[in-house]
Write a structure and sequence with these properties.
The structure is a homodimer.
Chain A (H helix, E strand, L loop, with lengths): L1 E4 L12 E7 L3 E8 L15 E8 L2 E5 L6 E3 L3 E5 L5 E6 L5 E8 L4
Antiparallel strand pairs in A: 2-3, 3-9, 4-7, 4-9, 5-6, 5-8
């Protein structure tokens, strides 16, 4: 019954962002994402078919929404809802510690 | 665009468990739940139509699943999946600090 801990199994070295799928079915997908200094590639924008609710749990990040001039700075506990097809990119994550995100992707229709 | 912080707005005194709905549509409901020493009433069992993925973010709790002899002790980061209609109750939460849970309820059918 008892599953896992979001803050365990954080690799000491992380060549690229690490994504673990915690729950997945046709309605919802819950992911733990770990970044250590990683950012979206230059010019890359996420453009997702599903809505995403995301919370930053440890570390720090800057998230840029398309059309905004300034990124959003996220600290632990900060959460936001990204509608489907709202383009966004991760400009920066802290290089000094693991940034742990929890993301819930879900169908957006009313 | 930027919403809120899960660890802000924690009441100093909490007469009963506090639930904030962060996202809700027909497929998914995301809740922040704050407990400070609260437990399920004697003899009460949660029996939910939807599956629930839950993570404890701060504090500590003991969760009992029906049919198990021992509760599960949860510390920050611990998460588990509770299938629909799997009866469970909160036996105990820490009286000394806010226990913040994040719960994602979703349709369970394949």
């Amino acid at each position: 019954m008892f599953d896992r801990n979001l803050f365990h199994d954080l690799p000491a070295e992380l060549p690229s962002e690490l994504t673990d799928i915690l729950v997945e079915n046709r309605y919802v997908r819950i992911e733990r994402i770990v970044s250590t200094g990683h950012a979206s590639p230059e010019g890359f924008w996420y453009d997702q078919d599903q809505a995403e609710w995301v919370v930053l749990l440890t570390g720090a990040a800057r998230l840029l929404m398309e059309g905004e001039s300034e990124p959003i700075f996220l600290k632990p506990g900060d959460h936001l809802l990204i509608p489907a097809h709202r383009k966004h990119r991760v400009e920066w994550t802290s290089p000094q510690e693991a940034t742990v995100w929890l993301a819930v992707f879900f169908c957006d229709s009313a």
